[in-house]
Amino acid sequence: MARLSVNQMIDNYRIISLIKENSYCETYKVADDTGTNLFLKLYIEKDTPQELFHEGVVCEIRFMKRIDNENLIHYIADGRTQVNGEFCQWLVTEYFNGELLSERIYREKKLAPEAAESIFRGVINGLSHLHMTGIQHNDITPNNIMITKETVPTAKIIDMGHLSYQVMGKPFFETSDLNPLYSANCTFSGMFDTTCDLFSAVAVLYAMLFGKAPWQVDLDDKMTRKEKADKVRAARKNPLELSSDSAIPANLLKIIEKGLVGINGTKYSDVKEIINDFGDQSQQSPEAGRGSFTQAFKKDDAGSRTETKTEEEGEGFIFKKGGGNGFKDIAGMDELKDMLRQKVIFVIQNKEIAEKYRLTPPNGMLLYGPPGCGKTFFAEKFAEETNFNFMLIKASDLASIYVHGSQEKIAKLFNTAEQKAPVVLCFDEFDALVPNRQSTDNQSFSGEVNEFLSQLNNCSHRGIFVVATSNRPDKIDPAVLRTGRIDKQIYVPLPDKTARKEMFILHLKNRPCDEIDYDRLADLSEGYVSSDISYVVNDASMTAAFQNKNITQECLENTINSVKPSVRKEVLAEYEQLREQMEGLERSNSNRRKIGFK
Asked: Distance between CA atoms of 491 and 470, rounded to whole angstroms?
């Protein structure tokens, strides 16, 4: 039974909900005094096994205070308190967003090699940091890896309840909850060291590429750990199933074969050996410290992720190949989709008709409106729909410490895009890149805007389609928004009920759910933007995953009740006025049919 109640305070942290519990530890979702969500683990001292303490402090707390890496869940705070007369130690860590890798594998079966490699590199980076501090994780499985929902996702290792130093005998931590399918054979005899983490990491790589654990066998929950271990060991006496599918790069197959089976009797004994087998120089040695595993990919004929280095300052332009579900992943906005199919995609895909009628697609469009409504996401899905290359550019990507350096970067960007054509260039927060020259005294800003004006002129003839997004289009230089540059300005409003229902359906698709009343969820989420709904589903899924249960209607509704819309009503009113200003409408004509959600 939970010892803490909703809204109870532990130090500066307010309890939101219980996530999971065992005989001695309870995990809660909490919020700090700024409203930021975090995790809090509460250890009841009298019930916690003595072997989990070191010098009076829970081992997990001691270990967590020593690690700091972007691929590991971050320590926030810890302390000791009394709850109902019982002394307890508490640990607060960051609250991670995204989805569990196990959910991604369940949904997609097999991940694209590019995505699998990106996740695997993140896991190896996190393990490298742990191992350099003399700590090992001991529980690397798809259930303990959180990933971002991007085309090329990044990974974060979570659940640090089994952290330890090297163990040669009986481990001090619980082993009954470890998944034998991802555990090295030596762990079944109580021997845990860094090489076991490497075996588990490679087993996860196998699962991403093949859709199942290596030497997959059915294990009954009623079986003891020894019975499970015996069954897994017996299966591993058989040859490992390795695909000859040419889509899987040879270096990844080599890593799997060496990491799980061994080559000439030798498996991986160090992270650096895995890095060497990637076969590129993009990875620095682990001794470079936190964040040293910077990814860099060369373009291949399959259109994998590409990084084209510029000479100045080593900055890069990363293009992603089109493909994917395209507009199918977008709920609502049917009129905008139809307009783009007619005005842009049709012209591109029907060259003979376009030449006959002398048609040219528009240069680009500006998507503006409240934050969180999916403007940048729409741009990426547009690139998938057209099968164009895609690049997302932020203001920092074009920044330079040199005079006129940013202008040179802008020119290089468009020249590179022309070489990659057809391509969608998506400029995020466009107002920061092309501010109104009349409202700034900075001459370098004016030079950058002038360079943009030059590059945007009829860039569609060069195979470049520009999609700009902004929360403040009134700050953009007016010359940028004329025809022949950014031809169309489109307001992206909050999703209506129909769109919200579709969003819940899309986000919950292929997740383990009980029967869900989507209409009621749409009613309860009035005023929520796309990112709010994504957050609600991920948060409810996280709670269900920790409890190893299906996602329920009650869980979703509880999450909605605890999450306020991120865009306030007074802010929405300001955006409606801004829309009228941009579209040149009088308030009396506000009923004009608008592109956007139904």
From this structure: 10
* H-run or E-run covering 406: helix 405-419
Decide yes or no: CATH 1.10.8.60 for domain 497-566.
yes
- State pLDDT tens for residues 415-448: 888 888 888 899 988 988 888 887 655 455 678 8
DSSP state of 596: S
311 alpha-carbon distance from chain centroid = 29
Query: What are 315's two structure tokens?
Result: 């900055």
Q: Which CATH number fits domain 306-491: 3.40.50.11030, 3.40.50.2300, 3.40.50.300, 3.90.228.20?
A: 3.40.50.300
Q: How far is CA 43 from CA 164, 176, 377, 570, 586, in A?
A: 17, 19, 41, 43, 61
What residue spans define the domains of the chain? 9-94, 99-288, 306-491, 497-566
For residue 297, name the pLDDT band (cuts at 50, 70, 90): very low
Which of 3.40.50.300, 1.10.510.10, 3.40.50.620, 1.10.10.10 would CATH assign to domain 99-288? 1.10.510.10
- Angle value at C-alpha 83, between 81 and 88, nearest 5 degrees: 45
Exposure on the CB side of residue 8, measured as CA atoms within 13 A: 14
Give the tokens for residue 338: 């139809």
- What pLDDT, in 10s, does the model give residues 574-585? 888 888 888 763
| Cα–Cα separations (whole angstroms), residue 531 to 2, 64, 351, 385 | 31, 30, 37, 21
Mean pLDDT of 530-536: 88
DSSP 320: B
Report the C-alpha gap between 294 and 123 in whole angstroms: 13
Q: Check: CB of residue 63 under 8 Å from CB of residue 137.
A: no
Give dist(CA 451, CA 411) in Å, integer: 7
Among the listed residues 216, 189, 228, 227, the one whose alpha carbon sits nearest the alpha carbon of residue 105: 216
Query: What does residue 188 show for φ and ψ, rounded to 5 degrees?
Result: -70, -15
In whole angstroms, what is the distance from residue 556 CA to residue 537 CA?
Answer: 7
What is the rounded end-to-end Cα distance, in angstroms, of the chain? 46
User: In the CATH hierarchy, which fold is given to the domain comprising 9-94?
Assistant: Phosphorylase Kinase; domain 1 (3.30.200)
Question: What is the length of the chain?
Answer: 598
Spatial distance between the Cα atoms of 279 and 262, rounded to a whole number of angstroms = 18
Q: What is the DSSP string of 445-479?
A: HHHHHHHHHHHHTTGGGGTEEEEEEES-GGGB-GG
